[in-house]
Specification:
149 residues, 3 strands, 7% strand, RNaseH_sf
Length: 149
C-alpha cells in the first residue's frame, strides 16, 4: 500500500523531536486486540454553506475498546485512551481512510448536501468491502527511518 502524499513528506522538526516516543507507542498498540482498537480523527467536507456535523458511533456494551486519539487540545477522553505521538499522522489509520474518502468525494464533485451524503455513503460501502486492517498494519509498520536526515 502506498502512502498518501502527506504521509510521504519529510518529517518536520517537531515530528523529529517526538521520534523517541514512537516505538513505545507502536509496541503498546501492537499488544492490544485489533478488534478493540478505535482510531479517530476529524474530517470535514465543505459544500457551499452546508452545515457542519459530527457523527458518533454506538459500541456494544460490556466490551473494552481502546480509543486512539491524536493530541489535539479538543480531545478530552482519558479512560482507555491511547494518545498518539504528536505530529505523526503516519500513526493514524483514519488518515488513510479519510484520504480515500476525500479522493472519492473529489472524483464525483458533489454540488448539494444530498449528493455529498450519497457519495460518502457509497465511499463507505466501498471501504467496507476492503480489508481495512491493512490501514492499521501500514501505520504500525511505518518505517520512520526512511526519512531520517
Amino acid at each position: 500500500m502506498s502512502s498518501p502524499s502527506f504521509l510521504r513528506k519529510d518529517r518536520t522538526t517537531k515530528q523529529q523531536a517526538h521520534l523517541a516516543k514512537i516505538k513505545p507507542y507502536v509496541d503498546r498498540v501492537k499488544e492490544l486486540p485489533p478488534a478493540q482498537l478505535i482510531a479517530e480523527d476529524e474530517c470535514a467536507f465543505y459544500l457551499n454553506e452546508a452545515p457542519r456535523r459530527a457523527w458518533g458511533i454506538n459500541l456494544p456494551n460490556g466490551e473494552k475498546y481502546y480509543l486512539m486519539l491524536d493530541n489535539a487540545k479538543i480531545h478530552k477522553a482519558v479512560k482507555a485512551c491511547l494518545k498518539k505521538v504528536a505530529y505523526c499522522p503516519q500513526l493514524n489509520p483514519v488518515e488513510l481512510i479519510f484520504n480515500f474518502l476525500r479522493q472519492y468525494v473529489e472524483k464525483y464533485e458533489p454540488r448539494t448536501l444530498e449528493e455529498l451524503k450519497y457519495i460518502i455513503e457509497k465511499g463507505i460501502e466501498e471501504l467496507q468491502e476492503k480489508d481495512i486492517t491493512k490501514y492499521f498494519e501500514h501505520c504500525l509498520n511505518y518505517d520512520f527511518s526512511k526519512n531520517e536526515q
